């Protein structure tokens, strides 16, 4: 097994290789505006660090969000392209699950990432491997009662200490955690789904209301 994991659902552009036993190479850079520019060089970097070629990869793991439309699609399209080119399966894992897996926090707890617009993407967990609720997007004040008294991890939790007073790192997801979680699930015989994006809300770009369609005569 050689899994190539990547995630662009948060400001982190993160890539890792897992050989079925451990992570053998990883790279993470935080830059919310350069996902497309940074992702492929990061893939090259981890392959070079491991001394392997892309053709050695036996599976792709992609973080499916939730996340913003533009950043998230960079990772998902890249994962699908690699899968088609190599003829290997492509698996999807929730980005919040990767953060939970990496969290050194006793359960139950909350994972919250920054959704912009003064909102967070969030979910509740019983422990690092068990999610209790579907991912959602809300204003922190709207979920204060639901998360009261619970530790929290992620950039969203760190950004809103009034709602998440017990906020902890990690701030962003790491592909190393996603790869490790996927390898664990596959070794246990679990079937991982194909990646389908968790946008949770419409893209920022909208067609103007008074837009006129010009048709040829």
Task: Walk me through this protein's architecture.
It is a single chain. With 217 residues, this protein is an alpha/beta fold. The protein has 2 domains: 3-96 and 172-188, 2-Layer Sandwich (Nucleotidyltransferase, domain 5); 104-168, Nucleotidyltransferase, domain 5 (2-Layer Sandwich), CATH 3.30.420. It is built from 6 helices and 11 strands. The protein has helices spanning 35-50, 69-86, 95-102, 144-147, 155-159, 175-187, and strands at residues 3-7, 12-18, 23-30, 59-63, 90-93, 109-116, 119-127, 130-131, 136-138, 152-153, 167-168. The strands form 2 sheets. Strands 6, 7, 8, 9, 10 and 11 form a 6-stranded mixed beta sheet that branches. Helix 2 links the parallel strand 4 (59-63) and strand 5 (90-93). The longest helix is centred in the middle third of the chain and has 18 residues, at 69-86. It is globular and about 50 Å long. It starts with a strand and ends in a 30-residue tail after the last helix. The mean pLDDT is 93.
Mean pLDDT: 93
Radius of gyration from the CA trace? Answer: 18 Å
Largest sheet: 6 strands, mixed
Compute the number of helices: 6
Give the count of structural domains: 2
Which band does the percent of strand residues land in?
Answer: 25-35%
Helix and strand element order? EEEHEHEHEEEEHEHEH
CATH class bucket of the largest domain: Alpha Beta
Q: In oligomeric terms, what are we looking at?
A: single chain
Helix content: 25-40%
Distance between the ends? 59 Å
CATH superfamily of the largest domain: ATPase, nucleotide binding domain
CATH architecture of the largest domain: 2-Layer Sandwich
β-strand number: 11
Structural class: alpha/beta
Shape: globular
Unreliable spans are none
Q: Would you tell me which CATH topology of the largest domain applies?
A: Nucleotidyltransferase, domain 5
